[in-house]
Amino acid sequence: MKGYEVRFEPDLPRRQAVGRIWQGVALLAILMGIAVLLTLLVRVFLDGLPYLRPQLFTEFPSRFPDKAGLRSALQGSIWLMVLTALLSFPLGVGAGIYLEEFAPKNAITRFIEINIANLAGVPSIIYGLLGLGLFVRGLGLGRSLLAGVLTMTLVILPVIIVSTRESLRAVPASIREAALALGASRWEMVRDHVLVYSMGGILTGMILALSRAIGETAPLITIGALTYIAFDPRGPLDIFTVLPIQIFNWVSMPQEAFHRLAAAGIVILLAVLLSMNALAIWLRNRLQKRW
Amino acid sequence: MLSRNLRLSILFVAVLALLAACQPAPTASPTPQVFVTVVKEREVVEVTPTPGPVEGTILVDGSSTVAPITIAIAEEFQKLHPEVRVPVGISGTGGGFKKFCLGETDISNASRPIKKSEIEACAQNNLEYIELPVAFDGLAVMVNPANDFVTCLTVEELKKIWEPDAEGKVTSWAQVRAGFPDRPLSLYGPGVDSGTFDYFTEAIVGKAKASRGDFLASEDDNVLVQGIAGDPNALGYFGLAYYEENRDKLKLVAIDAGDGNCVLPTPETVANGTYNPLSRPLFIYVNRARTDQKDEIGLFLKFYLENAKKIVPDVGYIPLTDEIYSLALQRYEKRVVGSVFKGEAQIGATLEDLLKAEQ
Asked: What's the pTM value of the predicted model, to 2 decimals?
């Protein structure tokens, strides 16, 4: 040990002042974010207010803004969300469980893990092109809802897998060891203990991923989702449109009234997104187990 | 424990059931874009005046400029024939032809005639098409309302401003015409993927897509409206429909084709061809084989050409004359395939030109 001197200088007023300045800067940062968001929300809401009425939900798009609604787009978005959830949940959570609990730690697993992490950052339009080649043309699904659902599932799968693994990892090793010590098989241990404890986190990740899916436009435009649809979708193999596409179409119209209609559409989309996030928070609080 | 197992297995079964339900039906046709659904009860009840079933789906895609017209027609058509579904996509004139020539769509909207490369693509797939003009559109050249020195520009001056060689060189209004003030020239125009950009460059510079690159480009015409309205030195161009909705924010510039006459774009000057060379015809292209298989396409096109005159002005475009619409209908009924433009771009095609081409 070399002898050196640590001198403590209790320059308290200066350090506290620096602390206060830092606190102010941090507060300013968050206030700016909130101010921008609020301005945006208030403007969109005020713009859309006159068109936030029942017809918005019951009418199909029209060239007359007063008669136009987003019935087909809303139905398309709901179909897309539900089917994507049903498809991506077992695939994503299954893959997450396998990688975290069962996969041998070897080069192949590591290769898969790295790729999944990278895929989570790939721009969604790339998935759109993949979907166009694979599902629309390759499997011959055409411009159907199912092709959209499969493409969207690909977009959000990496996110679900990563968040599932994070939630599983948060379960203490002692829980696993206790289950195994009592003679549970590996699957019994995962099913009855680990999965139960991590379900809150898994569902939160799932819902946040789905929120991303219903806001996406680019991959759906690429696979050929349509812009004008004036009928109810008949099933997973029917053609479709979604909320963001309808909003985009209205925004690009020359008439001011359509821009207001688009604002009303944005309010609806925001409401759907916020209620999904609220659901995620509620589920997490309800299912979260403490140890 | 049991209930948890039960819940998991219910979820599993539900997912399986869904996957099974999602399987493509074994009867799916090789062209899955076409979903013809037969509604049994109606078949019994309905006695339609036209022969053949009036149900099915007519898939339309293509130009965003023409889309509002086709959408408006589809809206009215579906009121009369609720069993025929007419969805419309917007993937641009070029993107639309790509799908059309692969047989993925029945009708393609186009803001310019079909190009040579696209004619070849269609020919490769043995796909015959019928070309039908549906409306006229004028391209408006605009400046900021605060601009008090520009009221009319010649095609020559526009070329001086927009040609590729002007990039970085023509940067002041004084360079456009002697007598204009020495103020910076800021330019606004549609993005390079739009048919409007193709047409403007072809008409003004003489070669499609030949343009200077240092201008503010946007695929969204509303962005261009905002840009020109907020910049006293601005000059820009886009479709007349967007000017009509923003008359108070923009100043329209008259165009002199070189004969000394300054002409403003109006429904009259665009329709009679005196607003030259920036008025253009808009088209739809119909898959010939598909129209022979599906009666509803014929029904839709007849409705389109018979009602376009009434509906086209609603969405900000200029209708053709009754005569041209009836000639177009004849062209369809005789199944005249191919393009009258033979893949050559045609600038300033007037109604008369079109009439001659139809005959």
From this structure: 0.79
